[in-house]
Write a structure and sequence with these properties.
Keywords: Membrane, Transmembrane, Transmembrane helix. The chain has three helices and two strands. Strands 1-2 form a two-stranded antiparallel ribbon. It has a domain of 50 residues. By secondary structure, the protein is mostly helical. Strand 1 and strand 2 form a beta hairpin.
């Protein structure tokens, strides 16, 4: 037999056995306990958290011991991120650039939706405010390294 005819025979066997049932039925395979779904739905209790006013925290009551304490194994992989740093304070020029960047197109959108008659100078001012705000923000962005980068700056291109 040639290698081509052996390959053809293997393909014929695969095609012939396509619709046959598997030797081992899926009912015989064990079902892992981790895949079992609890019979009753998980109840959740909403309680305010200590550090965040106005936010609510969800807590599972089904995962508690009868004494009311959580299992130590449950908290092993739990990660609570630290609170985010405060937003930086913006100077007047940056605030004006953001207002111009969004204010120009917002004025044009409102004027178009309200069918206002726009004078040429108003249209020019709105477009110039958008472009000027964008340019001001890009120029003020800077390309210097942060002060806390440390001794290893990584790859410098």
């Amino acid at each position: 037999m040639t290698p081509q005819s052996d390959e053809d025979e293997v393909w014929r066997q695969i095609v012939a056995s396509f619709n046959e049932t598997a030797e081992r039925d899926s009912a015989d395979q064990p079902w892992p306990d981790s895949e079992n779904v609890p019979a009753e739905p998980v109840r959740r209790v909403v309680k305010p958290s200590e550090g965040l006013e106005g936010f609510e925290e969800l807590e599972d009551t089904a995962e508690r011991d009868p004494d009311g304490e959580r299992d130590g194994a449950e908290d092993e992989g739990h990660f609570e991120p630290p609170p985010p740093p405060p937003l930086p304070k913006l100077d007047l020029a940056t605030k004006l650039a953001w207002v111009a960047l969004f204010g120009g197109p917002a004025y044009l959108l409102v004027a178009a939706m309200a069918s206002w008659h726009m004078e040429g100078w108003a249209l020019f001012t709105a477009v110039a405010a958008f472009i000027g705000g964008f340019v001001a923000l890009v120029v003020r962005m800077g390309d210097d390294r942060p002060n806390d980068s440390g001794w290893d700056d990584g790859a410098v291109l």
